[in-house]
UniProtKB/TrEMBL annotation:
Its cofactor is iron-sulfur cluster; Mg(2+); Mn(2+). Its EC number is 3.1.12.1. NCBIfam families: cas4. It comes from Clostridium oryzae. This is CRISPR-associated exonuclease Cas4. The lineage of its organism: Bacteria, Bacillati, Bacillota, Clostridia, Eubacteriales. GO terms for molecular function: exonuclease activity; iron-sulfur cluster binding; metal ion binding.
């Protein structure tokens, strides 16, 4: 399975959403939350930063100095910071496996907020465990059951789940 950073984000939000997304079941593209998120991701900080691709991973370089490389991930809200953190951890691990040590920065331009993310041994162990769970969930024939959570009201799949 080709697991990317987005899988880690969904895994930490809703495992059902993870399954749907992994099956390429497209959410409601007219959903305004999806549009705003896409717009912010495409336009925030872009004039200052460079977006680089590394394998199947894309991220913004925030700072490349003697102190090291810092990569960033832009989000529209810090409400889901835990999920965003693990997505960024995954990118940091991809770089580490290629011999590049970097730290991460979560960017919330609408809130004028930044949050540092460091990949340490515990985080690497947690990533590995999550990766195994992601694989288990995505290879199941059926999606996980609906679990009503706060995120449902912002989810592009809500019509699919609740109609
Ligand atoms: S609507 Fe709720 S249960 Fe359904 S996929 Fe979205 S977050 Fe998960």
């Amino acid at each position: 399975m080709d697991i990317n950073g987005t899988y880690f984000w969904y895994y930490n939000i809703c495992t059902r959403e993870l399954w749907l997304m992994s099956r390429k079941i497209v959410p409601d593209q007219q959903d305004e939350n999806i549009d705003i998120g896409r717009f912010i991701h495409e336009h925030s900080y872009k004039r200052k930063d460079k977006e680089i691709s590394f394998g199947n991973v894309k991220f913004d370089v925030i700072l490349d100095s003697k102190q090291g490389l810092t990569i960033g991930e832009t989000k529209k809200t810090s409400k889901y910071s835990e999920a965003s953190k693990w997505q960024l951890m995954f990118y940091l691990r991809v770089l580490k496996m290629a011999g590049i040590n970097a730290k991460g920065m979560l960017l919330y331009p609408q809130e004028r907020k930044r949050e540092e993310v460091i990949l340490n041994e515990d985080a690497e162990k947690a990533l590995l465990e999550m990766e195994q769970n992601i694989e288990k969930i995505c290879t199941c024939m059926k999606p996980p059951k609906i679990k009503r959570i706060g995120y449902c009201k912002n989810c592009g799949y809500r019509e699919y789940c609740y109609s």
